[in-house]
Structure formats: C-alpha cells, structure tokens
Amino acid sequence: MSLPTWDVVSRRASQLLAERDGEWSGLPMPIAEHRLTIETKNPWRDKIADLEQACYPTVEPDDEGATLVNQWYSKSQRCNVLVWREADGRVFGGRGDHDTTVKENAAWGTIAAAQVWNFEAECTAVDKLATLVKPHLFELYVMTGTLIETSQRSAVSYLFRRCKPTLAIRPAKGGAAMRCIAALCLHPIGYYEGTWAGSMVPTDEVIAHLLLMRGDEPLYWRRSNQHPAWSPLAGI
User: Fold this and answer.
1) Alpha helices (H) in the chain, listed in sequence order
2) How many CB atoms lie within 10 A of CB 71?
3) 149 sits in which H/E element
4) Between these two residues, 119 and 136, which has the higher pLDDT value?
5) 6-34 CB burial, b ≥16 within 10 A, e <16
6) pTM summary value
C-alpha cells in the first residue's frame, strides 16, 4: 500500500483544523532540506516546528567552536565573503556559494515545494485573481506568470511574479528605460529557506502582494524584505 503524499496529508490536516478551530490558513507542510520559517503570529508556529523536526531531524553543522567575525557581499566575486575564528583563536576566510549556485538551488527548492502545494487551491486562486485585474493583465499572468500595475500614489510600477519576489520599478533618468528599485519578498504565512517558495500556493501570494500594495503601500514595503536587483535573491 502506498503512503499518502504531503499534499494529501496537508489537505486533510487543514480540513480538520478548519472544522475544529476555524483556522483559515491551513497547515504548512515541511519538505526535506529546506527549513520552514513561519510568520511569528501564526498560532501553529510551534506545532509546525515540532512536525518538521519529527519528519526531518536537524543535523548539527560541524563547526563547533567557530565564531563568525564578519561577512560582506563581493560584487567582483559575486558571492558572500566570510571571516570566522576557530575555537583555538585562528582566523580564516572563505567564499560562500556563487550567485549562480544560489539561484540554481532556489529554483530547485521551489520545484521541491510544489509537492506540498494544493493544486485545487492554486486553481481557485487563479480564478480569484481574474476578478481583481483587467482581462489583458490576467491573460498576461496566465501566459507568463507575471502582471504589472502602477501605484497611483507613488507612480511606482510593480511587476508581480509567480514564485519570485515582486519587482518595484520606475523610469530611469530621461525616461528611456525602467530601473528596478528593489525586489520585494513577502510570504504572509511562511516560506521555505533557500527557495522562492512560500507555504501558500503561488497565486495566493501574488494576490496578497497585489492587495497589500493597493491597500497600504507603505506597509507593503515595511513588511517585505527588500533585495537589490543585483542580489541572487531578487530572482532576476
């Protein structure tokens, strides 16, 4: 007899929570190699952490006694540079993963997260998005996974992307081209570390970005992690 998939387990657990406790957000499910980070106000944060530890026990890194002294990003090397001190006092330096490796790992990790997403929930979210944007923008989203909207308050244009941070853009000097101000990363319930995947289905997160931008643009910026365009985390 085959075991149920994480999608089936998540769907059933979410149904039980909704019926018993009125919990609307569902139960984010763990995946191997990508730790779940849950929003601090989520009532199931501790229980989700216990479930994750039971499914994928944490392996302690082999760096006992080492202390990180400093780190910074090197544009020339396209990676983080780290300096650390060993327990015996010796100081070492090294390079972290190259930008290309970071993006490659994030892409594969996002694909891995698809195993716990609910396909029916994604279809429902897509139908909902169709009621929130103009038809030609919805068609653009279906075909490319992106849609664009310009804020009437700030004149900043936002390129909302499925499974990627939202790009905030505005005309460069002279108006001949657009420049990216920042990539806004926001996962309302939680996300899988080292990926671009949230615990909600992708289009639900796009809707969350869109509605928060429309309703309270300053709050949208405050709640989002703001990555520069050159960062691999921006997903450009």
Assistant:
1) 6-21, 45-55, 99-113, 119-130, 135-144, 202-215, 217-223
2) 12
3) strand 146-150
4) 136
5) bbeebbebbeebeeeeebebbbbbbbeeb
6) 0.79
